[in-house]
C-alpha cells in the first residue's frame, strides 16, 4: 500500500496561515489531540457494547509521551483506530471541507477557537507546533491493515503501510524549532492538567515512583519498596458526572478544595442536571465573598464532555452569578467554542435561564428549610440576590419572596414583613410609606440615633450593590419612597402633618440665619431655620436625597455627568427651638455669637466625619478656649 496525494484545498499552503493566526493559543493542540484519542477509546467501548466489536477491549488508556532527543510528542490511544480509507475520509477531506470558506474568513477571525471550531480543524492544530505529523494506526475492523500517514505541513500527504501491531492510534508530532517549549515535561503537564484533569479515560503521562508495602524486616517492622507506576493525570469520574443521591457533603467540599485549594469552604452548592431541551451537568458553589470581586470572577469552568474549554462563561452564566464557582459541562457546547458562537446560540440562552431558575429554587428551598441559617448567610447571599433582582426580571419575580432587608439592629425581614412593620408609623401625609436607610452606619450614627428616637426604623444598605437596590425597590414597591437617614433632619424625613413650629419671630430667625451664614462662610452651604423638637440637635448638616443620588450616579458613570460637575451642596438646618439658639440671640457681642455658631456647626460636621485638616485643628483650639 502506498499512496501520495494532495489534500483537497484551494490554497497553496494553509498551515502557515493556521500557525500565524493561532499562535497565541497554540497549546490547545494537545487538548484537540487528546480529546480525539479519548473519543476513539469511547467509540470502541460503544461498539463493543452494541455488539459490533467482539475483540479484547483492554484497559482504556490514552498516553502522552515526550521524547526530548527525537523532539517528538506522541499521543497514543487504544481506541478504534482508522483504516487507510478512513484516514483519507476523515483526515484528508473532512477537515478541509470548508477550506475555501476558511480562506475567505480567516482574516477576520479573532481567536483560534473560532477558526478551529468553524472548520473542524481539530486534528490540524497539530501543525501549530509541528514540522511533520505522522499517524500510525490500526483499525478494530477485521482484517484491517496498519496504516501510516505523514504530512509535512504542505498540502501533500503520504499514506503507506503502518507498523502498529495493536488496535489504536499514535499521533506523532515532530515539534518545530519555534515550539520547543512544548518539549518540557512541566509545560505538557501544565497543559494536561488544565484541559484534561477530568477526562473520562485515564491519561498517562510518564511514570511516578510510589512506595508499596514490602513485608517486614528482621525486627518485624513493615518495609516498603519503590515501584514505578503509570502517572495518570486525571480523575475519570468527577462528581458532576455522578448522581446527587450518591454524593455526600464531604464529596462536594472535597471537590471544591480540589478546584480552589486556597479558598474557604463555600456556603452551599447546586447540582445541575438536565437532559432536555439541552444537556447540562455541573455543580455550582456559592463562595464566601471577599471584597475583591474582580478576583473572584471567572471561576466557573466550562467543560464539554469532561474536556475543559474555558473559564470565560460570561454568556452562559447570567452576569449576576459570575461570582459563583464550580463547573458546567455541556456536550451541546462545541469544544471549540468562541465568544460569537455563545452569544448567538439559542441553547446557551436556555442554559442561562435554566441556571437562573435553579439558583432561585435553591435559595427558596434554603429559606423555607431553615430561616435562621439562611439569615446567617444573608450577608454573603444577599449580594447575589440583590444583584440578580436588579438585573434579571425573572429572577426578581422569584426572589421577592426570599430577599431580606436588614435593619441597623441586625434584624431581618422579607419585603412583605418589612412593609407591614413600618406601613403605619412611617407613612407621610401623601400616603407614601417611607423606608429610611443608612449606607454607612458608623458615619451616620447621630442621624440613626435621632431617627430611632422618633421610633423610625433604619435599614442597612451598605453593600456595594445597595445603591442600585435602593432604586430598584423604589421602582418595584408601590407608594414607597426610600430616604437616606442623613438626607434631612430626623423629624423631616417623613413629611407628616404634626410638624413642630419654630418659636422664633421672623426678625429673630433672620438674625440667627445671618449669624450662622457669617460663621460658615463656605460656598455650597445653605442655612435654614427649622422648627424641631428642642431635644433634637441644634445644627444638622444634610445633603438632599435627590441631589446626592444624582451625584452618586454620575460618579458610577450612570450618565448624570451634569450633576457630577456641580459643587457639593449642603443644607444646614438650625433648630430654632434649641436652647443654644436662644443663647446666641441673647449673647451681647457679635464675636461670641459667631464663636457659638461656628462651634455648633463644627460639632455637626464632626459628628458626620466631615471636619478635617485645619478646620479640625481650629475647632480643637476653640473648644479648649471655651472650656
Ligand atoms: N486518535 C484517533 N483515533 C481515531 N480516529 C481519529 C483520531 N483522531 C482523529 N480521528 C478521526 O479524524 C476525524 C477528524 O478529527 P478532527 O479533530 O480534525 O475533527 P473532529 O474531532 O471531528 O472535530 P473537532 O476536533 O473540530 O471537534 C475525527 O472525527 C475522527 O474520525
UniProtKB/TrEMBL annotation:
Alphabetical list of SUPFAM superfamilies matching this protein: ATPase domain of HSP90 chaperone/DNA topoisomerase II/histidine kinase, HSP90 C-terminal domain, Ribosomal protein S5 domain 2-like
Q: Where is this region: Disordered?
A: 207-228
Give GO MF terms, alphabetically.
ATP binding; ATP hydrolysis activity; ATP-dependent protein folding chaperone; unfolded protein binding
Keyword rRNA-binding: yes or no?
no
**Which InterPro entries does its entry note?**
HATPase_C_sf (IPR036890), HSP90_C (IPR037196), Hsp90_fam (IPR001404), Hsp90_N (IPR020575), Ribosomal_Su5_D2-typ_SF (IPR020568)
Keywords from the UniProt entry: ATP-binding, Chaperone, Cytoplasm, Nucleotide-binding, Stress response
Signal peptide as annotated in the record: none
What CDD domains does its record include?
HATPase_Hsp90-like
Annotated ATP binding sites:
32, 36, 77, 82, 97-98, 169, 339
Q: Which domain of life is it from?
A: Bacteria
Does the record carry Aminoacyl-tRNA synthetase as a key word?
Answer: no
The entry assigns this protein to a family as follows:
Belongs to the heat shock protein 90 family.
Name used for this protein in its record = Chaperone protein HtpG
Organism annotation: Pedobacter psychroterrae
Amino acid at each position: 500500500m502506498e499512496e501520495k496525494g494532495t489534500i483537497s484545498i484551494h490554497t497553496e499552503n494553509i498551515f502557515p496561515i493556521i500557525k500565524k493566526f493561532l499562535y497565541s493559543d497554540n497549546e490547545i493542540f494537545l487538548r484537540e489531540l487528546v480529546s480525539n484519542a479519548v473519543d476513539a477509546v469511547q467509540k470502541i467501548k460503544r461498539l463493543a457494547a452494541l455488539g459490533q466489536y467482539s475483540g479484547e477491549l483492554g484497559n482504556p488508556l490514552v498516553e502522552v509521551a515526550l521524547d526530548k532527543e527525537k523532539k517528538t510528542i506522541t499521543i497514543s490511544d487504544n481506541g478504534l483506530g482508522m483504516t487507510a480509507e478512513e484516514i483519507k475520509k476523515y483526515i484528508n477531506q473532512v477537515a478541509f471541507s470548508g477550506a475555501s470558506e476558511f480562506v475567505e474568513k480567516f482574516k477576520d477571525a479573532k481567536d483560534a477557537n473560532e477558526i478551529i471550531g468553524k472548520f473542524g480543524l481539530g486534528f490540524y492544530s497539530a501543525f501549530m507546533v509541528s514540522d511533520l505529523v505522522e499517524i500510525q494506526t490500526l483499525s478494530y475492523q477485521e482484517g484491517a491493515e496498519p496504516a501510516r500517514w505523514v504530512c509535512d505541513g504542505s498540502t501533500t500527504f503520504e499514506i503507506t503501510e503502518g507498523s502498529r501491531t495493536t488496535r489504536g492510534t499514535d499521533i506523532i508530532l515532530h515539534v518545530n524549532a519555534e515550539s520547543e517549549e512544548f518539549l518540557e515535561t512541566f509545560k505538557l503537564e501544565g497543559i494536561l492538567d488544565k484541559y484534561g484533569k477530568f477526562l473520562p479515560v485515564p491519561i498517562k503521562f510518564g511514570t511516578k515512583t510510589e512506595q508499596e508495602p514490602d513485608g517486614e524486616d528482621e525486627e518485624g517492622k513493615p518495609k516498603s519498596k519503590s515501584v514505578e507506576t503509570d502517572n495518570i493525570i486525571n480523575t475519570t469520574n468527577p462528581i458532576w458526572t455522578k448522581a446527587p443521591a450518591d454524593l455526600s457533603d464531604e464529596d462536594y467540599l472535597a471537590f471544591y478544595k480540589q478546584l480552589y485549594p486556597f479558598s474557604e469552604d463555600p456556603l452551599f452548592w447546586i447540582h445541575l442536571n438536565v437532559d432536555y431541551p439541552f444537556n447540562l451537568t455541573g455543580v455550582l458553589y456559592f463562595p464566601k465573598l471577599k471584597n475583591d470581586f474582580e478576583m473572584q470572577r471567572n471561576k466557573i469552568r466550562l467543560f464539554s464532555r469532561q474536556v475543559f474549554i474555558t473559564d470565560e462563561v460570561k454568556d452562559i452564566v447570567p452576569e449576576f452569578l459570575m461570582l459563583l464557582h464550580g463547573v458546567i459541562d455541556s456536550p451541546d457546547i462545541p469544544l471549540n467554542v468562541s465568544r460569537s458562537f455563545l452569544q448567538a446560540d439559542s441553547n446557551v440562552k436556555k442554559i442561562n435561564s435554566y441556571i437562573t431558575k435553579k439558583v432561585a429554587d435553591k435559595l427558596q428551598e434554603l429559606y423555607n428549610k431553615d430561616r435562621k441559617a439562611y439569615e446567617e448567610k444573608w450577608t454573603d447571599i444577599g449580594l447575589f440576590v440583590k444583584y440578580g433582582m436588579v438585573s434579571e426580571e425573572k429572577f426578581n419575580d422569584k426572589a421577592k419572596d426570599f430577599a431580606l432587608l436588614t435593619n441597623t439592629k441586625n434584624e431581618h425581614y422579607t419585603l412583605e414583613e418589612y412593609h407591614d412593620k413600618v406601613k403605619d408609623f412611617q407613612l407621610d401625609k401623601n400616603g407614601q410609606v417611607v423606608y429610611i436607610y443608612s449606607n454607612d452606619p458608623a458615619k451616620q450614627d447621630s442621624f440613626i440615633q435621632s431617627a430611632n428616637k422618633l421610633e423610625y426604623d433604619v435599614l442597612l444598605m451598605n453593600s456595594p450593590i445597595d445603591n442600585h437596590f435602593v432604586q430598584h425597590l423604589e421602582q418595584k414597591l408601590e407608594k414607597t419612597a426610600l430616604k437616606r437617614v442623613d438626607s434631612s433632619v430626623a423629624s423631616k424625613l417623613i413629611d407628616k402633618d404634626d410638624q413642630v413650629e419654630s418659636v422664633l419671630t421672623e426678625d429673630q430667625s433672620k438674625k440667627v440665619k445671618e449669624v450662622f451664614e457669617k460663621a460658615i462662610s463656605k460656598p455650597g452651604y445653605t442655612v435654614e431655620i427649622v422648627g424641631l423638637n428642642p431635644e433634637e440637635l441644634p445644627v444638622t448638616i444634610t445633603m438632599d436625597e435627590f441631589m446626592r443620588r444624582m451625584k452618586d450616579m454620575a460618579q458610577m458613570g450612570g450618565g448624570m455627568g451634569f450633576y457630577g460637575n456641580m459643587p457639593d451642596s449642603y443644607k444646614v438646618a438650625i433648630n430654632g427651638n434649641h436652647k443654644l439658639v436662644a443663647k446666641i440671640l441673647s449673647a451681647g457681642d457679635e464675636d461670641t455669637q459667631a464663636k457659638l455658631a461656628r462651634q455648633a456647626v463644627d460639632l455637626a460636621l464632626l459628628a458626620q466625619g466631615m471636619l478635617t485638616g485645619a478646620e479640625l485643628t481650629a475647632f480643637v483650639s476653640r473648644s479648649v478656649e471655651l472650656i
